[in-house]
Amino acid sequence: RLALALLLLPPGGLGKPTARQERARPGAAQHEDRPGFQYDHEAFLGKEEARSFDQLSPEESRERLGKIVDRIDDNKDGYLTTEELKNWIKRVQKRYIYENVAKVWKDYDLNKDNKIAWEEYKQATYGYYL
Fold first, then answer.
1. How far, in Å, CA of 100 to CA of 14, rounded?
2. DSSP class of 48
3. Measured between alpha carbons, how far is 76 from 55 in angstroms, rounded to an integer?
4. What is the pLDDT of residues 75-93, one digit of tens each?
5. What are the contacts of 66-72 at 24+ separation with CB within 8 A?
6. 108 and 121 Cβ atoms separated by less than 8 Å
7. Cβ–Cβ under 8 Å, residues 65 and 5
8. Distance CA 93, CA 18 (A)
């Protein structure tokens, strides 16, 4: 758990400062995330969950992260393995793909017959160009 927490939380347990909410404690050193951190957060948490984490206080982030870590620990031994972490990321990404397909499907299935014909695809994709 500690390794995962260190991966996701910056030094000192401070959250990433955001435009909406300043999370650094007074007098604490500011932390700069490495480039690509948002991609890592999205891969680990999912896009929507990553966005919600950006708005939490450090205490709320730790609490929610602890609950997520417990869900990742498949064998409930109190430790995360590389395999458990890989499996978690695969589950999160698969869920994101299914949700994204469901959202986009509505835009492409113009006649609402639960099928996407080539003409519907072209219309939805290129629409006003045709």
1. 31
2. H
3. 29
4. 999 999 999 999 998 998 8
5. 66/1, 69/1, 69/4, 69/5, 72/4
6. yes
7. yes
8. 25
Task: Please give the DSSP secondary-structure letter assigned to residue 56.
Answer: S
Tell me what pLDDT residue 81 has. Answer: 94
Which residues, 6+ apart, have CB-to-CB distance to 42 below 8 Å? 50
User: Hey, what are 38's tokens?
Assistant: 């948002």
Within the chain, what is the greatest distance between any pair of CA atoms?
60
Instruction: Give the separation between CA 99 and CA 92, rounded to whole angstroms.
Output: 11
Alpha-carbon Rg for the chain, nearest whole angstrom, is 20
pLDDT digits (tens, 9 = 90+) for 23-71: 444 444 444 556 666 777 777 777 777 788 778 888 888 888 888 889 9
User: 0.70 exceeded by the pTM?
Assistant: no
Query: Angle, to 10 degrees, between the axis of helix 82-108 and the axis of helix 58-72?
Result: 100
Instruction: Give the 3-state secondary structure of residue 130.
Output: coil
